[in-house]
Amino acid sequence: MHASFNAAPHAASTPKFGSRFPAAVTGFAKPQLVINFATDEEIYGPGDKAGTFYKVAYGAVRIYRLLTDGRRQIIAFHLAGETFGFEPGLTHGFFAESITESGLRAYSQHDSAETSHELLSLALHEMVRAQEHLLVVGRQTALERIVSFLLDISSRQGDLEHTELPMSRIDIADYLGMTIETVSRAFAKLRQDGYINLPNARTVEIRRGHALRDLCE
Question: Which of 27, 51, 121, 140 is deepest in the core (most CB within 10 A)?
Answer without folding.
Answer: 140
